[in-house]
Design brief:
Distance between the termini: 20 Å
Oligomer: single chain
CATH superfamily of the largest domain: Glycogen Phosphorylase B
Number of domains: 2
Order of helices and strands: EHEEHEHEEEHEHEHEHEHEHEHHH
CATH architecture of the largest domain: 3-Layer(aba) Sandwich
CATH class of the largest domain: Alpha Beta
Shape: globular
Strand order of the largest sheet: 3-2-1-4-5-6-7
Helix content: 25-40%
Radius of gyration: 20 Å
Number of helices: 12
CATH topology of the largest domain: Rossmann fold
Strand content: 15-25%
Structural class: alpha/beta
């Protein structure tokens, strides 16, 4: 049972990584069910997994009552919670009824769950300190991205700013950097919670050979065509890394800076300012990326070294083992 939320406030990353784990669970013969507070259009991103709409974000008082009622009908379940706002009391209350796994982006020691996942680069520093699954070996990147890394003759520039793109950096990139992409196919992605697709369409008119994709279910097919990406600083960067794409990222929200930092420290990512003050330096960085095969190869190889293989099957194994151990 996966409890997460998605949309303009939460983005798509929480749902996306839970779906990757659910896929691995089902591949092992398990069953999955999603409880999500989101616009009905988000259901398509859960694929074939069972979907139940939640009336509010996780952690709200009546949400806890709702989930406890659901647990009464599913005696053999494990709960996986992935929400940036749930507190220790919420997790403890659900854990009193079921084995509970929590996915976190920060210090896993703050969680009271039976098993805690932090699969960001650098999380390995907490090894040996608790019942944790840590680091990129437990990544939730879908297998298609790893296969995309082996595709020959990739030439496209992929522009993807996540599910919501709160400051419309998609349009900003096309407007301020688009002329640098001359000679390359350009793929611009508009996420499902984007507030102003029209501005992206207007900016795209000035970019040759551009194509716009609206709310694709995933980026696998687009990644398989792309050699370079300009991306938001969220977990999409991990998918692009697994696909071997040389990426320059913009922190479209403050919390993304912490996600970008470990990749830049490992020479697996360039960082752009993504604002009107940084236009000159951003153009120089992207121009160097487009014109410099040595830089592209270095970024690509460093990125792939961080994400050499899918990690969701390892998480699924740990979920089954947790279920077996607790129910003995």
């Amino acid at each position: 049972m996966f409890r997460c939320d998605a949309g303009a406030d939460h983005g798509l990353g929480h749902l996306s990584r839970c779906v990757a784990i659910a896929d691995a669970v089902v591949a092992r013969g398990g069953k999955s069910r999603f409880y999500v507070h989101a616009d009905a259009g988000m259901q398509v991103f859960a694929g074939a997994h069972e979907w139940r709409s939640a009336a509010s974000d996780a952690g709200i008082a009546h949400d806890l009552a709702f989930m406890k009622e659901e647990l009464r009908a599913t005696p053999d379940s494990i709960v996986v919670v992935d929400n940036k706002r749930v507190d220790e009391q919420y997790v403890a209350a659900l854990r009193a009824d079921r084995p509970l796994v929590q996915i976190v982006d920060g210090d896993p020691r703050k969680s009271v769950a039976d098993l805690v996942i932090n699969n960001h680069p650098g999380a390995e520093s907490f090894l040996g300190q608790g019942p944790f699954l840590l680091g990129t070996s437990y990544n939730t990147v879908r297998s298609g991205y790893f296969a995309a890394a082996n595709r020959p003759d990739r030439r496209a520039v992929l522009v993807t700013m996540g599910g919501e793109d709160p400051s419309n950096h998609t349009a900003w990139v096309l407007q301020h950097l688009g002329d640098l992409f001359a000679g390359h196919p350009v793929i611009a992605v508009i996420g499902p919670a984007h507030s102003n697709p029209g501005a992206v369409e207007d900016a795209a008119k000035g970019v040759p050979a551009v194509e716009i994709h609206y709310a694709p279910h995933d980026l696998v097919a687009l990644a398989a065509r792309s050699a370079i990406a300009i991306s938001a600083g969220g977990t999409t960067c991990y998918e692009l890394a697994a696909a071997g794409i040389a990426t320059a990222a913009i922190a479209t929200e403050p919390h993304q800076r912490a996600l970008i930092a470990p990749l830049t420290e490992r020479n697996a990512l360039l960082v752009l300012g993504g604002n009107d003050i940084s236009v000159s330096s951003d153009r120089s960085a992207v121009g160097g990326l487009l014109m410099g095969p040595i830089l592209r190869n270095r970024l690509s190889q460093s990125a792939r070294a961080l994400f050499p293989a899918p990690g969701a099957p390892r998480i699924a194994d740990a979920l089954f083992e947790l279920n077996k151990r607790i129910r003995k």
